[in-house]
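G.,

No rush on this.
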Amino acid sequence: MVRDFLKEKYECVVCGKVFYEGQGIRIKREGLQLDFHSSKCAALFFKRLIEESPSAECVSETAKKLIDEFKELREKRSKKHI
């Protein structure tokens, strides 16, 4: 068992809560590091990010693609239960 003092600590960018490595949600992309201690904080951050962005063009194409992918997955799952 690894002691808490040996684990890396991170701070949630939304609420400031400190959490240890292996917990929370950590996203790193092109030099940007986003650390969230919970899915609730991550959802709040991304909701505000989309709402406050001057243009949704930067994410709309990717969002549409993901929506289609998740729809296909839901359809496949529902067919398995029939």
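When you get to it, here's the other one too:
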Amino acid sequence: MFERLVKGFLDFCETDDIVDNIMRKDYFYSPFVSGLYVNLKEGYRIMSIALLVSNVGISMFHMFVFLRTTLIVAKYNFTLMTFLFQLFMIMQFTVTVLAVATLRRQDFRRTHREMLGEFFDYTGEDHTELLRVLRAEEWAEKKRLLLLPVFLCVIGANCMLLAPILDNRYGDFRFDRHESGFFTDVPIPLAYPWEIRDNERTFYFVFLTGLQLATAFFICSLIGSATLACINVISTLNLHIKYLIRNIEDIEGRAERLFASLYFGKPGSADRNFTDPRYLSCYKICLNKVFSHHQKILFWKGLIQSVFSVPIGSAYSTGTLVIALSLLSINTGTSLPGTALTSTMMCILEVCIMALISVLGQRTTDLNEDLRRSIYNIRWYSCNGPIKSDISILQEVSLRPIVLKGFGLVACSLDTFSNVMNSAYSYFNVINAF
């Protein structure tokens, strides 16, 4: 038992140069900064763990303060209450994602090392041009999605800087915040659970403003890096499925090229090839590589499900509530223009993130359907009995859809996105009725 714990701890602390390089080049160090993937390399270990602990501690502290302030404000200003509760929900989402990423660190590392660091190799075959074309197509689709993390930073800056200015100058809070125990010197005024005297205001302004800025930076960096990881990993899974489909569609051409390299000559006509045992052996070798690649894809899908199941499910559930509360803040927020503006931006961002997850998940499912059709469209009827049996097994396995699920229950699909939008609007109507 003790040996297993030690082995698990050592595996957890293991570092990988390939993965570390991906964190630097593809994610611009954001997983290291946010704690999504703690840098445990010697020389950075203590600093990274200290940063992780401080981020979690400050976030948990603010979750308590925001919830306390929300309960106080509920008696006076419904718009402000819904806005503060939105921020509380977003903070609990970031802590949840961080906890899952930490617990699933090994799977996260292995996913990036095998899928992104070491692309599947069809030994003896040159697919350089095919991979170049597929990667260009992937980047054309992916680069538009990378605007979401940038938009997230804009919202964070607006929430901390612009919204308080607009609310203080043009808003009406409808209650005396000082009498209710609010400390109004900080960017987001909150009711802290201790009394702040006049001679202490300067110290607490610097200290509490620093904590709020640290929390805002942590939230933006973690959600941004998690969004980048989700885009990168699922897009790469889809790239692998496309790569597999192209190799299945070209299996006869691959078999002919292998035949030419092994037997120093071209095979006969397409119909005569399937009666040539040498060609069939080449065909079998190419088919076995397809099997290996498909098995890898199924394994990687399991790793992705292990790492992203809870974050995706939490994104759907948290996003549904945040959208409903944002609509309430917008609907009732004429007295607080800064709060209404931030709620509008948060609503748009949540819709975009859930649409992103749904579109990527739907794309994976659709590609699995394309895979099944590509298997059926090869000339399986011309093959001999053993190869027909192999193709039948591959066809049977491909009938099981590759579906990414939040909490292992909610499929990432456009249908789910539609249901989430309907649920958010229903919550808005129910709460607004009161």
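The longest helix spans residues 277-332. The chain has one domain: 2-117+127-433.

Enjoy the weekend,
O.
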